[in-house]
Design goal:
alpha/beta, 5-stranded parallel beta sheet, 8 strands, globular
């Protein structure tokens, strides 16, 4: 929604601009950041609230809690590894699944549960890792395959959020990495996205995930998690877009806020690798956007999805003018193979827009 221009603020108090940032992320930061993001830093199984009439959500908490307890402080070196494989000198079949896969729609709390598993695993933080599929592939790109195996091979647990089944090349790479880590005694947990063109076919995600990881499939127990998107459970509709003047005033009045024209931001994202989008948001307390309009193409849309994920992870509220967020992605995009990603992004942006209302309303 456009409007008359905002009054010119005084010099020296300009907000930040995402378009002015071009971060460089060293490999050691990529490793250090393999922990649950700020939004999920304090979550635990006890804080997960199952939806009404959703027994699968109750079951998931119980199964994952037992899985965490069963790790018993084991990791790839020493007694823990011998326990997994049944003793010295031979690899016996493990007593139970060494991996869990959370199968469910967006907004049912899979990331909450995955992060709770990470927190519950009885090991030091440096012996367990948590990251998205994209962050894991970025780590391999920065360190190289063998060094990544050495870096993660001493861990007790690796949690992978949003396993990208729609990227065959990277799926093969990560599957090979997971095979090496399993041989080192690392326990695995994952959630995943869906393959293009396979939407609406029932419980396809679990089957596709197990097929893509091939030889590792036997190590995974699938947990189906049903339910509605908790971000909208019992909440009002997304707030209306504000005027350019309201967004601009809020940006100037909020310490640590950024202010960018939406089309310019989309253009800037094309010049920043998605692995750096987390660093792009360093120190931000709010993101203010003017002239929100439909995303022009799929490549741009997928970059916006990554940015939405990083903003949501870091609990950065969003205030916007222009079109409402539910009109970001055209009907053709929402019918295509990346539908699940786009719906997740819309869900998360809507949640952040609700949080952004306080910037205008106080």
């Amino acid at each position: 929604m456009s409007s008359t221009p905002a009054p010119a603020p005084s010099a020296g108090d300009s907000p930040l601009s995402l378009c002015a940032r071009a971060p460089r992320v060293p490999a050691d930061r990529l490793v250090a950041e393999l922990v649950p993001p700020p939004r999920f830093d304090a979550v635990r199984f006890a804080s997960y609230v199952p939806g009404p009439g959703q027994p699968s959500q109750h079951e998931a908490v119980e199964v994952l809690g037992a899985f965490a307890a069963g790790l018993g402080g084991a990791h790839a070196s020493g007694a823990g590894k011998r326990r997994w494989f049944g003793g010295r000198g031979r690899k016996a079949a493990p007593a139970g699944p060494r991996g869990v896969y959370l199968d469910g729609g967006y907004g049912v709390g899979k990331t909450h549960l995955l992060a709770s598993l990470w927190h519950a695993a009885p090991a030091a933080p440096e012996q367990k890792a948590f990251g998205t599929f994209v962050e894991l592939t970025n780590l391999v790109g920065a360190l190289g395959f063998q060094q990544t195996v050495r870096t993660l091979g001493g861990h007790q647990l690796l949690c992978i959020d949003e396993f990208e089944l729609d990227d065959p090349g990277d799926t093969v790479l990560v599957s090979s990495l997971l095979g090496r880590l399993v041989d080192s005694g690392v326990a695995l947990a994952a959630t995943s996205n869906t393959l293009p063109g396979r939407l609406g076919e029932g419980r396809f995600a679990a089957a596709d995930f197990l097929r893509e990881i091939q030889g590792l499939a036997a190590h995974f127990r699938t947990l189906r998690i049903d339910g509605e998107d908790y971000r909208h459970r019992g909440l009002p509709e997304a707030p209306r877009p504000y005027t350019d003047a309201e967004v601009t005033r809020a940006a100037y009045a909020t310490e640590g806020a950024s202010l960018d024209d939406f089309p310019h931001l989309l253009d800037h994202l094309s010049r920043v690798h998605p692995s750096r989008y987390g660093a792009l948001t360093d120190g931000l307390r709010a993101v203010c956007l003017t002239d929100v309009r439909p995303v022009p193409d799929q490549a741009t849309a997928l970059r916006l999805v990554v940015l939405a994920d990083r903003l949501y992870d870091r609990e950065v509220p969003v205030l916007a003018s222009g079109l409402p967020f539910d009109r970001l992605f055209g009907e053709e995009m929402l019918r295509g193979g990346y539908r699940k990603k786009y719906l997740r992004a819309l869900s998360r942006l809507t949640s952040l827009a609700r949080e952004g209302k306080v910037l205008v309303n106080g």
